[in-house]
Every structure is written in structure tokens, then in C-alpha cells.
């Protein structure tokens, strides 16, 4: 399957913007990568890359070709996975792009539970903002995406989703810690940490506040939930996050999750998705089923 290898060469160069960096990633000499790309360009009859003083850039023809080859490589991975499944090997890599809020509890549980039965499956996890999750799924850099409130996109297929409300997280000795629900106006009296605009929870807050006179004056704005947690624990403040992905009961050690109760504050959705046209490899499909089961259980508990 030499042609598949050469397609991977082109893909690596397109992702890195450099023949040298692609060769380092592929662990081969750069001259071999360049030679195969030149061969492909001659066969196709047009340049795929524009050679620049520092690196390369896809030509319009190259953009079309790379879109094709990524779909082709995804299909090759799926076929190889099915063949291995017939042989009972269960090998492979499952690539997931996910929001940071799922990194400390939700995803580690998924991985450890799955690998008990399928120890030969390796996971590649990228933690990133919601727009980057969508981008990586669409570019076939991830088999699955886990994202809160993804932007509407025709190229995504939703495999599972659950409704999520924003919660205020406070230390266990906080004045609000015993409340069953809380309003934003009650939170502003304390040091505030809020997610930046790369995170889905911020979208809900901004949409709500755009129609209210209430203004948040945060002490910390960041794309890191871990940083917000530590800030709140040290300052006695408040930060906002969905509860899925946080250990239960009552959040992480030293923290309590209190649902935000505000008329007009929208409920968001935590979505498991893949690229719309993809048929997932066997291992990725099995992981998707496990995630869907977990999400269904969370939804059932919240009813």
C-alpha cells in the first residue's frame, strides 16, 4: 500500500507547512518526502504546494487534493480496523478532541473502562476549545469530538447529546455552599473566574447578559478550568462550568456545584460528534457507544 504511505506524506506536509518538519514527524529523510510529492504532482499534472523561502503552502489544487486524501485515509483506517476486528486483534488508535472540562474525570474513566476489555486500543486525546474541537473533527484529525454548545455546522454528525445547565462552583466553606440553586447577581459579590470566549459556557453567559443590566467584573478570565478551580479554592470565589466531567458528588474535593437558576439563561448541550460523511473505524465506533451509554446515564440521573 505504497500509495497510502505517499498520501500520508502529503498530509503531513500540509499539516506542518514544511517538508523538513513533515519528514521529522514521519521519521524519514526529507528528500524522500520531497521526491514522492514531486512524483504525485507530475502524475496529477499540477503543483500541490507552493514552495516558499520558509516552508510550503497548499495551492488551490493542493487544497482539493488534501480534502480528498483525508477522506481516503480515514476510509483506509476504517477498513484496516475492520480487518483487525475479524482477526480478533482489536488494535488501533482512537483519536478524540474534547473540551478541557472533561479531561480530569470523564475521559480518564472512559479510557480506563474501555481498556479493561480492549487493552490493545491506544487513545490519542487533544484538549482544546470548542471551535478547535470542531475543526479537528472536520479535518479528520480526530475520530470523535466532545464539545459543549458546538456552533451549528452541516459537516458534523451528532452521535449523542445531553442538556447541560451551568453551575456555580464554590469552596465547601463558601457562604453559598449550602444553596440548592443560585443567581448570578448573588455570585458577583465574590471574586469571579469566568471562561473565555473559546469555551461553550461563556457563550451562554454572554447571551444571557446581553439582555440584562447585570455586568460581570471578573478577577480572572481564562480558557483553563483547572486554573479557575485553583483560583476559587484560594480566593473563596466563584467560577462557572457544566457539571458533567466533574467527579460526583459535589464536584472536585473542596468544591460544591450549585445550579444557576435564571429565567432566560439557556440550557446548553454536551455533544459527541464525528465528521458527517465518516464511517467510524471499529474501535472508534465502540468507544462512541460507550460514551453514549455514559451520557444516557447522566441524562437519566438528572431527570
Automatic annotation (TrEMBL):
Cite the Gene3D superfamilies for this sequence. 3.40.190.290, Winged helix-like DNA-binding domain superfamily/Winged helix DNA-binding domain
Q: What is the lineage of its organism?
A: Bacteria, Pseudomonadati, Pseudomonadota, Gammaproteobacteria, Alteromonadales
InterPro entries the record matches: HTH-type_LysR_regulators, LysR_HTH_N, LysR_subst-bd, WH-like_DNA-bd_sf, WH_DNA-bd_sf
Task: Give me the Gene Ontology terms describing cellular component.
Answer: cytosol
Q: Which family does it belong to?
A: Belongs to the LysR transcriptional regulatory family.
The record places domain HTH lysR-type at 5-59
Q: Which domain of life is it from?
A: Bacteria
PROSITE patterns from the UniProt entry: HTH_LYSR
Question: What protein name does the entry list?
Answer: LysR family transcriptional regulator
State a single Pfam family of this protein. Answer: HTH_1
Q: Which UniProt keywords apply?
A: DNA-binding, Transcription, Transcription regulation
MF terms per GO, please?
A: DNA binding; DNA-binding transcription factor activity
Organism, by scientific name, is: Hydrocarboniclastica marina
Amino acid at each position: 500500500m505504497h500509495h497510502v504511505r505517499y498520501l500520508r506524506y502529503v498530509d503531513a506536509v500540509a499539516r506542518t507547512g514544511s517538508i523538513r518538519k513533515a519528514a521529522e514527524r514521519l521519521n524519514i529523510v526529507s528528500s524522500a518526502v520531497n521526491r514522492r510529492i514531486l512524483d504525485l504532482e507530475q502524475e496529477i499534472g499540477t503543483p500541490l504546494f507552493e514552495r516558499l523561502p520558509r516552508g510550503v503552502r497548499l495551492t488551490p489544487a493542493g487544497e482539493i487534493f488534501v480534502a480528498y486524501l483525508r477522506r481516503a485515509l480515514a476510509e483506509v483506517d476504517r477498513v484496516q480496523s475492520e480487518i483487525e476486528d475479524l482477526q480478533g486483534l482489536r488494535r488501533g488508535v482512537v483519536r478524540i478532541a474534547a473540551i478541557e472540562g472533561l479531561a480530569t474525570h470523564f475521559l480518564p474513566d472512559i479510557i480506563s473502562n474501555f481498556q479493561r476489555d480492549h487493552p490493545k486500543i491506544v487513545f490519542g486525546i487533544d484538549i482544546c476549545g470548542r471551535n478547535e474541537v470542531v475543526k479537528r473533527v472536520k479535518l479528520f484529525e480526530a475520530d470523535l469530538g466532545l464539545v459543549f454548545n458546538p456552533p451549528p455546522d452541516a459537516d458534523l454528525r451528532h452521535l449523542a447529546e445531553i442538556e447541560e445547565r451551568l453551575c456555580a462552583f464554590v469552596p465547601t466553606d463558601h457562604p453559598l455552599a449550602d444553596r440548592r440553586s443560585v443567581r448570578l447577581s448573588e455570585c458577583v459579590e465574590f471574586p469571579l473566574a469566568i471562561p473565555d470566549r473559546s469555551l461553550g459556557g461563556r457563550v451562554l453567559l454572554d447571551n444571557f447578559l446581553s439582555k440584562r443590566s447585570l455586568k460581570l467584573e471578573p478577577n480572572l478570565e481564562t480558557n483553563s478550568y483547572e486554573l479557575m478551580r485553583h483560583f476559587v479554592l484560594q480566593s473563596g470565589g466563584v467560577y462557572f462550568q457544566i457539571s458533567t466531567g466533574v467527579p460526583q458528588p459535589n464536584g472536585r474535593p473542596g468544591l460544591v456545584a450549585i445550579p444557576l437558576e435564571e429565567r432566560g439563561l439557556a440550557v446548553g448541550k454536551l455533544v459527541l460528534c464525528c465528521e458527517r460523511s465518516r464511517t467510524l473505524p471499529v474501535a472508534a465506533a465502540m468507544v462512541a457507544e460507550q460514551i453514549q451509554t455514559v451520557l444516557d446515564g447522566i441524562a437519566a440521573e438528572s431527570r
